[in-house]
Every structure is written in C-alpha cells, then in structure tokens.
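Hi F.,

I've been meaning to write this up properly since the lab meeting, where we talked about keeping a consistent format for the predictions we share between groups. The idea is simple: the sequence comes first, exactly as it goes in, then the structure tokens exactly as they come out, then a line or two of notes. No screenshots and no reformatting. I'm using this chain as the first example so we have something concrete to point to.
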Amino acid sequence: MTSRKPDEQLARNSRLRLVRPRALATARRAVTTRRTRPAPRPPEGTPPRHELARQARTVLDDAVRIARWASVARAPEALPAQERAAAELDLTPDQIRAGWDRARLAGLVELHGDTARPGWRLHAWDRDDSAVLRGWVALFDAWSLVHPVPEDVAPGDVAEVVEAVPQVLSLLQLSAGPVLVPALLDLLQQRVEELREERCEVPAADTAADAGPTVSGAPTAEALAPLLGWALEGLGAVGALTLGQNQATLTPLGNWAVWVKLEQICVAAQSPAGNIEQSAEDMLRGCARLTPGPARAEYRAWLAARTLGSAIGELLAVARGEDALLRGLAFEALRVVGAPAEAEVRAVAEEPSLRPYALLWLAEYEGADPDDAPDVLTREEATWLWVDTAAAVADHGESTLLVRHLDSAVQGTVPALLDEVRAVGHPRTVQVLVALAAAHPDPALAKAVRRAAFQVHTGGA
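Output, unedited:
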C-alpha cells in the first residue's frame, strides 16, 4: 500500500461547484436562519453569558489594552512600536508581542498596510457580551497559532495532533472535572492512530531516517507526550483549560465553547429594536433578522425620516466599518435610495473595501440582472468579496453556513481558492480561514485551510 498525502489528494480532488456568488444573500442567511429554531440550553452549571463574557474580558485584558493603544497611536506591527507600547502600557516586550498576536486573532485589531485600526469587536467590547464571546471563540479556534510549536517536530505530526484535539476536549467536557494527563494521552494516541488508518498512511522507509523526531507509523505515547503538552499549554494560554498536577480541567469558558462546538451553534449577536429612530448602524442591525421584503420597508421608513444626503452619508459610514454584514446591508439600503445615491456610490468605488459592493450596486442600478451583476467584478474583487462575506458569516452565522459558503467561490478548487485568498490581502483572512478549518467536516480540507491560515498569519508564502 502506498503512502498518501491528504494535501495532494485535496489538490486533485477537492473541486468546488461553480455557482453564482450571492454575497448578501449568504450573509443575510447567517442571521435569518437562526430564527427558525430555539437555541439549545447549555449544560447545567454553565455560568450566565454575562459571567462568561466577564471571564473572556479578563483573558483578553492585555490584548484589549494593546489594541486600544494601537488604534489611537496608529502603530504598525514593528519592534519600535512594541517597545513604545511596553513603556506606555507598563508591560514587557514579550507581553506586548503576545497580546498583539492575540488581539489580531480575536478580531480586536486589523492591519491595513502599516496602520493598525480597531476591529468592530473592539468598538463593542464594553457593551456587547456577544462580541466579547465571539472574539474569545475566535482566539480559541486559533489556539495552535498562539503557542510556539515544539522544536524538531514534523509539521505533519503537529497537524495530526491539532486535528485530534477536539476529541481530547470532548473528553474533558464530558468528564465535567479534572482528567489525568495519561488518560488524555491514551485518547490522543488512539485518535491519531484512527486518523492514520482512515488515510491508509504507511511511512516511507527511505525518508523516515531524515525526517527528524516524528510520530510516524503506529503513534507511541513517548512521541505524542510532548505534543499533548504543547496542545494543553496552548489551550491554557487562551483560557480554555487549567493545568494542575498531571491533570487538566476545562475552565467555564472552555466548557461552554466545547459545548457550543458540539451543538454546532454560534453565539448570536443581539439586534436592537425601534429601527426608525435608530442610527444607521443600529437600524441595519435591527433589520438583519428580517427577510428582504420587510427589511426594504424598514429602510424606506428610516430614509423617509431623514434628508437623503445625511442618510446616504450615514449608510456609507457604516459600510466603511469593520462589520462585513453591515457593509452588505448598507448597500442593500442604498438600493432603496436609488438614483440620489449614484454619485456617492461611484465615488466610494475607488475605496478597496467598498469597491466590490459599489460595482455590484452600479451594475444593478444600470439595469443588469442581479444574477449577472457579479460578472463586473475582477477575479481579485470577487475573491475579496468572498472573504468579506465569509467574515460576516463567521461573525453572525452558523458553522454549517460557512461550510456551504465555500461553494460560492469563483475558483474551481480549494487549493486555487486558498492561493488567491492569501494574495488578496483582506484583513480578516486569518480569522476566516481559522473559522472555516474549525467548521469543515473534511479533515484533509480543514488541515489545508488551517495551514493556509498559519502561512498568512506568519507571513509565509
């Protein structure tokens, strides 16, 4: 039996269906589909959401301080800025580097060129528990990027352990208390062996000697123990578990997050009511749960209570914000405005983050069929819109919808999509890829997406 590499198989076999990208429809489904069924109740003993959010704020306290400092100082991710931040925030340079990394992974700060801008979660940090919990879950999903990988370990072995960790977390969650590390190691060993059997992998004799320390062939406890320690330390670093004397215990946050993953639900962002009297941002949030017809009625009522010039300006200001769902909804509201908004929409078509939305708006305004409007976008613009829509789904939707969003990519295969996503430079690329890897049921595809997230995060090719 010959050795098979999942990534190579992925490149050959993972073809995407070529479907019309309907970005706003996908983003809207992220919130409207949640209304059809009640949310499952968390396990007994789970702290209330406000207490979970308080714990998440504590875990990310340094990251929030650094993100707020960076957003005011407009500091690039450079060593002089880190030294300056350490002096002004009374933190060590190592704490600044770690906190900055966590702030980016949690969506608290985004880099645009050499300038740091606050993410939408940072704006809502003190008033929105859902935004806080989503930020922490994003960090939880990216735990393997937070903690340095042990030296002299084969990348394939690391990837296998990352893929097996959900089973370790499930055992911790079901145990509802401390679990001895040897028991976790035994489970990890069984799971890695299962993964290899599923892929029918046999180590190549002529390369094993040169690969360095590796969990090759039948996984041994001795070889896996350092990787289990790395995984437990990484999960502990993001506040998901605590380590005692030869045992691990999920924190309330970690227990809740594992339950969320097992139930395949996402934390819901709450929308305010009273749309007509609200600001543009709150009005759009209030309309996000509505289907298109009722939403358009709300937009008309909101526009009727304001001068068109100020209303258009408010909508475009929201579109320039960090929440991708609101960006799409703002242009949907501008479609109700029609001709009076044409000049302003043409002007913002020169802004990279708004260009795909503006071009689609103009194409439909000029009479193009909505299904044909995406043809006006270049491949790069369509890819940027795909990432932006995926960010909206990751922030507001369910993991199954994020997986289905993969089919709307214009690229024909997953490797082609990942190559172009890496090149397009969207500020939410890492978070989108991490969320997709966490949600996708195909281990080989999830591994490739996770690797792409790591490459973007570290600046690799």
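Notes:
The two ends are 32 Å apart (CA to CA).
The longest helix spans residues 155-175.

If this format works for you, I'll send the rest the same way.

G.
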